[in-house]
UniProtKB/TrEMBL annotation:
Protein name: Predicted amino acid racemase
Record-level GO cellular component terms: cytosol
Pfam families, alphabetized: Ala_racemase_N
Organism (species): Acidaminobacter hydrogenoformans DSM 2784
Keywords: Isomerase, Pyridoxal phosphate
PANTHER family listed in its UniProt record: ALANINE RACEMASE (PTHR30511), LYSINE RACEMASE (PTHR30511:SF3)
GO molecular function term, any single one: pyridoxal phosphate binding
Domain of life: Bacteria
Isomerase is among the record's keywords: yes
Length: 354
C-alpha cells in the first residue's frame, strides 16, 4: 500500500537512549513526548524499554493509549486541559500542565470525586507568549492551588520556541530556577520538576550551560528526528533518518514548465508564479496536502525536486533524476517535524515499522 511511512524503531530507540543518558548525567529526569507520532504503539513500547518513566502527550485520547500500552508509566498531559475534558484528564493523566485557576479548581473537584491525587505543573510564561501564568502572578496562583484538595504541585515549567520562537537562554531558564527557589522558600515545599522546556533547550545541555536547578525536560522532536530545535542542529550520535515516506509515480511525462492560459488562483487560493525552464520531465506522485505538509518533504533521489502540490497530487521535476523512473516507481522522501505530524495523523498513509 502506498503512500506509506516506514518507521525504523531501533533508530528512534537509539536516539531515545542517547538523550536519556545525556539528561541523567546532568541530573535531569526527562519526559518523552509522543504527540508527533500519535502515541504509536511500537515507538511507545521502545521508549518504555529504554527506561523513560514519564510519557507526555497533548491529547487525552493519546494518553488513554499510553495507559493501555504502558500501565506502570506516568502519563503527562502537555496541553492545558479543556474544562470539558476534566474527568478524562483525571482518569488518564497522572500529571497535567496548567495555567488557569478555573481549570485547576475543576481538576481538584474531579480528583476528589475520583479519590485520586492529581499532580500539576504550573506553567510560567517567560516570553514565548504561548501558555503560562505571568511570573508576577506565580506566587498567588501557587498559594491558591496549595489550598485545593487532591491536587499536588509537582513543579513549575516553561515552554519556549513554540509560538514566539524565543530561544532558551540563561535569562529565561535562570528566571525559572529563581522562581522555583522563591516558591520553595516562601511555601516551604519542594518542587519535583523544574521543567525547562522542550527539544529547544537541549543545546544548553549539550554545551554544558543549562542553568543548575533545571530537573526536567520534555523531549519530542529530538528523540524522533535527532535534532535540537533552537538552532536546528543535528545531535551527535543520533539518527535523523528514522522515517522514510514512500509514494508512487502515477504519471510521468515531458511537459512545459509554465502553464498555458490565463493564470488565476490555484486549488488553495494562492496566485502561483512560474519560472520558464522550457520542457521538463514531470512526475506526479500519489500523495498530497490531504496527507502531508508538503513543504517538509525532501526527496531522497538526487536531481528530483518538488515543484507543487494539490490535495492529492505531488508534482516533481525529475529532469535531473539520477536513476531511470517509470509509472509505478516508488519515490522516497525524508520528513521534517511538520511533515511527520501530518503523516502520522493521516489515515491515508500506511505506517510500517521495522
Ligand atoms: C510539544 C511539546 C513539547 C515537546 O516539544 P519538542 O520540540 O517536540 O521536543 C514539550 N512541551 C510542551 C508543552 C509541548 O506542547
Amino acid at each position: 500500500m502506498y503512500p506509506r511511512l516506514k518507521i525504523d524503531i531501533p533508530k528512534i530507540k537509539h536516539n531515545a537512549k542517547v538523550l536519556r543518558e545525556l539528561c541523567q548525567n546532568n541530573g535531569i529526569e526527562p519526559m518523552v513526548v509522543t504527540k508527533v507520532h500519535c502515541a504509536h504503539p511500537g515507538i511507545t513500547k521502545a521508549m518504555v524499554e529504554v527506561g523513560y518513566t514519564m510519557l507526555a502527550d497533548s491529547r487525552v485520547e493519546n494518553l488513554k493509549v499510553l495507559k493501555s500500552l504502558a500501565p506502570g508509566v506516568k502519563t503527562v498531559l502537555l496541553r492545558l486541559p479543556m474544562v470539558s475534558e476534566i474527568n478524562s484528564v483525571i482518569e488518564f493523566a497522572d500529571i497535567s500542565l496548567n495555567s488557569e485557576l478555573k481549570t485547576l479548581r475543576a481538576l481538584s473537584s474531579e480528583a476528589v470525586k475520583a479519590n485520586k491525587v492529581h499532580e500539576v505543573i504550573i506553567m510560567v510564561d517567560l516570553g514565548d507568549l504561548r501558555e503560562g501564568v505571568l511570573p508576577e502572578d506565580l506566587e498567588s496562583v501557587v498559594k491558591e492551588v496549595l489550598s485545593m484538595q487532591n491536587l499536588a504541585i509537582a513543579g513549575i515549567g516553561v515552554n519556549l520556541t513554540c509560538y514566539g520562537g524565543v530561544i532558551p537562554d540563561d535569562n529565561n531558564l535562570g528566571r525559572l530556577v529563581e522562581l522555583a527557589k522563591l516558591i520553595e522558600t516562601k511555601f516551604n515545599i519542594s518542587l519535583k520538576y523544574i521543567s525547562g522546556g522542550n527539544s529547544s533547550s537541549l543545546y544548553k545541555l549539550i554545551d554544558n550551560t543549562l542553568p543548575k536547578g533545571i530537573t526536567n525536560l520534555r523531549l519530542g522532536e529530538a528523540v524522533v528526528l535527532g535534532r535540537e530545535t533552537a538552532y536546528g542542529e543535528k545531535i551527535e550520535n543520533t539518527y535523523e533518518d528514522a522515517f522514510l515516506l514512500e509514494a508512487q509515480i502515477i504519471e510521468l511525462k515531458e511537459k512545459d514548465s509554465v502553464p498555458t492560459g490565463k493564470i488565476g488562483m490555484d486549488a488553495f487560493g494562492n496566485n502561483p508564479s512560474f519560472i520558464d525552464k522550457g520542457k521538463m520531465k514531470r512526475a506526479i506522485v500519489a500523495i498530497g496536502r490531504q496527507d502531508v505538509r508538503v513543504e517538509g518533504l525532501t526527496p531522497v533521489d538526487a536531481g528530483v525536486e518538488i515543484i507543487g502540490a494539490s490535495s492529492d497530487h505531488l508534482i516533481l521535476d525529475v529532469t535531473g533524476a539520477s536513476r531511470a523512473l517509470e509509472v509505478g516507481t516508488v519515490i522516497g522522501f525524508r520528513v521534517d517535524y511538520g511533515a511527520l505530524l501530518s503523516l502520522m495523523t493521516s489515515k491515508y498513509v500506511e505506517k510500517i515499522s521495522e
